[in-house]
Amino acid sequence: MTNHIYPWQKNDWQQLQNYVAQNRVPQALLINGALGIGKQHLAEQFAHALLCEHPTAEGFSCGKCSRCLLVKAETHPDFMDIKPEEIGKNITIAQIRTLIEKLSLKPQFERYRIVLIHPADALNNAAANAFLKYLEEPTERTVLILVTHRMNKLPATIKSRCQKFTMAMPDKNLVLPWLFQQTNNTEVIFNLAQGSPLLAQQYATDEHFTQRRDCFNAFLAIAKQQSHPVIIAEQWLKLPEATLLFWLSSWVIDLMRYRHQSTPKNLYHADFKRELSELSSHINSMKLYEFYDLLLQSRRRIETQINKQVLWEEILISWAMLNRSVL
Ligand SMILES: [Zn+2]
According to DSSP H, which parts of the chain are helical? Predict the structure, then answer.
């Protein structure tokens, strides 16, 4: 197989090719699955292949025909890419109205016309409703490809009108060799990313690795009463809060694992084994669960307008207290 798709996507690609071979490409395809497994990439490859004049034997776009060149230049008239105008924002009704207007015209070429919508969960209510009307009466030779890792945020009415295409978590045996080309810490990173290859790829950067180590050292220093929580809280303001909260929660989960077993398997942070094991030996399990609850609540609170300094102080002071009570 060529380098058009990731090594763990062969079955997915085959399934998409079956639609083509049977001339049953769905009018609306909803590609879903976990974050960081390459859904968007697969959707793009499929779109390019449907637009290409001379696909390869494996069904990939040739990359050379006039249509492929238009795709590369981002000027293919029958390829529409709908995404939020800014990362993290919604797809608006204005964007969907413009799209529907274009779709009311005939496709420019004789092959498929493709609309890629990602992330589909970014459609706001008004946009979703407008889009739904179109789905009831779609235009000819038009394929809509929606991509999301948050199916629960998508209106049921939209889901029910799409052919669902669910990508499974990739097989570890296919991911590890791929990951190995990018990092030496393959196992650690794979576990840290909970099996998500593209997240792992991101985690494998030196910067991410160093930051995780630095933050863990600060976490340990607070436990040993060698650093002040308020000072660390201030330093952490510069870091992405979702990542920090994930690290904190996963350190706590690893600590809980050590409370239950002397040599737990599948640690998130296997490279911090020694420190985690030592720390767990003088922590109160009950208090650790309470602390974990606080972290879970904090995950919800970072989505609101909360003062981040206050949030980190609250978390780190609780962490300091938890450790003080047992020393
Ligand atoms: Zn081509």
Answer: 10-21, 39-51, 66-72, 93-103, 125-136, 156-160, 172-180, 186-192, 197-203, 206-223, 229-236, 241-260, 273-281, 285-301, 308-324
What are the structure tokens assigned to 79, written together? Answer: 């390829």
Could you tell me the distance, in angstroms and rounded to a whole number, from the CA of residue 79 to the centre of ligand 1? 14
Ligand 1 centroid to residue 2 C-alpha, Å: 15
Average pLDDT of the chain to the nearest whole number:
92
Provide the b/e sequence for 300-324 (b: ≥16 CB within 10 Å). ebeeeeeeeeebbbbbbebbbebbe
99 CA to middle of ligand 1, Å?
25
What pLDDT score does 215 carry? 97
- For the cut 70, the answer to whether the pLDDT of residue 219 exceeds it is yes
Distance 47 CA to ligand 1 centre (A): 11
The confidence score (pLDDT) of residue 3 equals 65
pLDDT at 277 over 90: yes
Q: 124-128, 165-169, 254-258: which range is least confident on average?
A: 124-128
Domains annotated for the chain, with CATH where assigned, are 7-168 (3.40.50.300), 205-324 (1.20.272.10)
Contacts of residue 119, defined as CB under 8 A and 6 or more positions apart, other chains included, come to 83, 84, 147, 148, 149, 150
% of the chain residues with pLDDT over 90? 75
Rounded to the nearest angstrom, the distance between the alpha carbon of 77 and the centre of ligand 1 is: 15
